[in-house]
Amino acid sequence: MKVNDDNLAATVQRLVDHREIERVLYDYAHYLDHNEPKSLVALFTPDCHIAYGPDHGADGAEAYLATLEHEKFGIGAFFAGTSHHVSNVVIDFTDDDTANVRSQLYAWHRYNRERPDGIVMGQYHDVFVRTADGWRISRRELKHTGTETYHAKGDALNPIPRNNAV
């Protein structure tokens, strides 16, 4: 698109929106890796839907916070450390206040249990909405490409559909 006097303000706003959405993605990884569940949940809408696999996720920010803070399986209780790397961010705006966002994920996990470190490779498929507090995630689905010594296997994972036609 060529920028001109007629579309300058809308073009600048779209660029700002793009950067703000990317920042939410990077803040998510930061708060997750630093075991800051309350800050992490603040990046989501109150009625959010999170699906890390077919049987693992949460509906609503309060339920998500309870999952993240669970005494046995929360991020601090289950993991001694994590490192989430988000890249290849693609943002498709459906209107001025909603965007479909896809990003690549590489995540390393050190467990609080005697087991090898686990790795997840995949994609986040998100829906972002503009709120009074800025852009927030209203829907997040993790789709897996592969894992290495990760604790969730098989039916617990949501594979990325792949076209295997030759």
Q: Could you describe the 3D structure shown?
A:
With 166 residues, the protein is of the alpha+beta class. It is 26% helix and 45% strand. The chain contains four helices and six strands; from the N terminus they run ααββααββββ. A hairpin with a 6-residue loop joins strand 4 (98-111) and strand 5 (118-131). The longest helix has 26 residues, at 8-33.
Which keywords apply here?
166 residues, alpha+beta, 6 strands, 45% strand
Order of helices and strands: HHEEHHEEEE
- The end-to-end span amounts to 35 Å
Counting copies of identical and different chains, the oligomeric state is: single chain
Order of strands across the main sheet = 2-1-6-5-4-3
Count the helices. How many? Answer: 4
Radius of gyration: 17 Å
Average pLDDT taken over every residue? 92
Number of strands: 6
Outline = globular
Name the structural class: alpha+beta
Major β-sheet annotation: 6 strands, mixed
Strand content: 35-45%
Helix residue percentage: 25-40%
Which residues sit in consecutive blocks of at least 5 with pLDDT less than 50?
none
